[in-house]
């Protein structure tokens, strides 16, 4: 996954922010406990969203100290089967993404991904042993995706559908049974479709320089920049379908957090990606500057 699915924290009240932080910290602890300290370095906002969705109505019940910030007071952490499932699935998604990068970028540019995949091989094997059905689903859909990319497929919907199906498979780990798994699969599917198209737009210039396949460039060989309205419409449609699926789920105390992510956070990221500001915002955030808040004005109108 790619780090696009995040909350608008300033739009959450203190209790809701604490809930989200508890899921973030809880997933970090679960990844470290199950797969070693290095696994924590792969933690992303996207994985935290998955952890929240798999948690059901469970809330933070445990307080733990952060090994990265040992002098801070212990933080409330979400624990339970949902967090373990999210930790395992996060490792599986990370490892397969690294292997995909090795294949896409070639022997030289792919060296960092190859090295990282070797570091995480043992963690991957543990996660695959714990979640064999999900690992098999990821492998199957990635094989299909690789074939479509190798064929330079211009069928944007088909390619995005194949990627989205990877995330939808994670719904099988929800403890709530079919009644909850069906809408969750739809929520994850449409979120995955949105992620794939956002990443394709974000990577357009880089893929063009490297002469790599990009589904948007293949779909619009005459030029993608004139197709912003089409891309924005199809991404927004996926977000709205994800919201509709979330409305069918019993999320308990997580309801306002999930609503915030889907109706404010994701649309804000979408606006920044389409405007070409996303990567600069990420660089500024990494240097400790305030991120651009202008996208939130647009997002709130969704």
What attributes characterize this protein structure?
single chain; 302 residues; mainly alpha; Farnesyl Diphosphate Synthase; two-stranded antiparallel sheet; 2 strands
Structure description:
There is one protein chain. The chain has 302 residues and is an all-alpha fold. It has a single domain (9-299), classed as Farnesyl Diphosphate Synthase (Orthogonal Bundle). It is built from 14 helices and two strands, in the order H-H-E-E-H-H-H-H-H-H-H-H-H-H-H-H. The chain has helices at residues 14-35, 45-54, 81-109, 111-119, 121-130, 132-150, 156-168, 178-202, 204-210, 215-219, 228-246, 255-275, 278-286, 294-299; strands at residues 62-64, 75-77. It has a two-stranded antiparallel ribbon with strand order 1-2. Helix 3 packs parallel to helix 6 (132-150). The longest helix is centred in the first third of the chain and has 29 residues, at 81-109. It is globular. It starts with 13 loop residues before the first helix and ends with a helix. The relative contact order is 0.12. The model is unreliable at 287-302 (pLDDT under 50).
């Amino acid at each position: 996954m790619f780090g696009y699915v995040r909350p608008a924290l300033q739009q959450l009240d203190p209790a809701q922010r604490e809930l989200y932080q508890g899921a973030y910290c809880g997933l970090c602890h679960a990844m470290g406990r199950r797969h070693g300290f290095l696994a924590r370095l792969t933690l992303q906002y996207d994985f935290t969203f998955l952890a929240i969705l798999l948690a059901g109505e469970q809330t933070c019940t445990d307080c733990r100290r952060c090994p990265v910030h040992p002098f801070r007071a212990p933080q409330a952490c979400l624990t339970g089967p949902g967090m373990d499932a999210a930790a395992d699935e996060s490792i599986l998604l990370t490892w397969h993404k690294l292997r995909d990068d090795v294949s896409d970028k070639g022997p030289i540019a792919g060296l960092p991904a190859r090295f990282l995949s070797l570091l995480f091989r043992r963690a991957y094997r543990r996660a695959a042993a714990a979640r064999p059905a999900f690992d098999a689903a990821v492998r199957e859909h990635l094989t299909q995706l690789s074939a479509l990319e190798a064929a330079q497929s211009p069928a944007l919907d088909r390619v995005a559908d194949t990627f989205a199906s990877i995330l939808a498979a994670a719904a099988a780990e929800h403890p709530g049974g079919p009644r909850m798994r069906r809408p969750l699969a739809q929520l994850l599917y449409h979120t995955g479709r949105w992620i794939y198209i956002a990443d394709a737009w974000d990577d357009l210039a880089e893929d063009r320089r490297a002469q790599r396949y990009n589904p948007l460039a293949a779909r619009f060989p005459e030029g993608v920049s004139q197709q912003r309205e089409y891309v924005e419409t199809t991404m927004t449609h996926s977000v709205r379908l994800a919201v509709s699926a979330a409305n069918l789920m019993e999320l308990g105390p997580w309801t306002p957090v999930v609503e915030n992510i889907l109706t404010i956070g994701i649309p804000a990221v979408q606006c920044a990606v389409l405007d070409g500001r996303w990567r600069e915002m990420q660089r500024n955030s990494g240097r400790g500057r305030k991120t651009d808040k202008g996208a939130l004005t647009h997002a709130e109108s969704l």
